[in-house]
Please model this.
Amino acid sequence: MTVSTRPLPPRSAFVLILGMLVSAIAIYGFGHTVDERLIHFKTAPPPILYVHVAVSSAWLALLVVQAALVRSRSVALHRRLGLWGLALGAVVCVVGYITVIVLRRADVASGRGEEAVAFLAIPMLSLLMFAVPFSLAALWRKSSHRHRPLMVLATASLTAAAFVRFPGLNHEIQPFLTDGLMVAAAAWEWRLTRRLNPVYALGIPIVFASQVAAIWLITTAPPAYMAVAHFLLRWT
Model:
């Protein structure tokens, strides 16, 4: 195993801290619903939900391990595990999409009708907030100044569904908490380099605009969007 002798970059510490923080947020948030939804349930959940929990948990664990390897200068092992990470991240995306569709269909069947169809924009946005930066990070995995912030954006996006499950937390402020993690990452890097990484400069506004667009879609339910949502729920 190759171990670098170069000084530890402060940015590696932030990525490790972020990985542990996101894991803690996920455990706390979903910990309030896992018993009712997956263990002592009244209605049996779809099997895909268990798969989703398993692969998402594995991803978070691998994420922390990878950040720790960078922090400990174990670059060669980090890169070898990165190949498994690419495969696992792809599985997270596929399983996530299937889970979104299955749960939305169940919601529609429960009687919520068009309201449930319109709400598809929210879980789909959460999925895209992970899938897009993850895919770009995989594409630019040899370019650290692109790969690292893209992985940070993908990682921070995982808190969106967890924050919703925080008891007593107003759902209207939940997106700002997720965005806040992304802004904190950009601010940390700016503090170290005195420049704003282009990935953050472009990515964070896109995330914010997408959140606004998703809220607009579920509140106004324009016909074109509803047609697409119905198609996805019916044929995918």
Remarks:
- The chain has one domain: 10-235.
- Residues 10-235 form one domain.
- Residues 75-112 form the longest helix (38 residues).
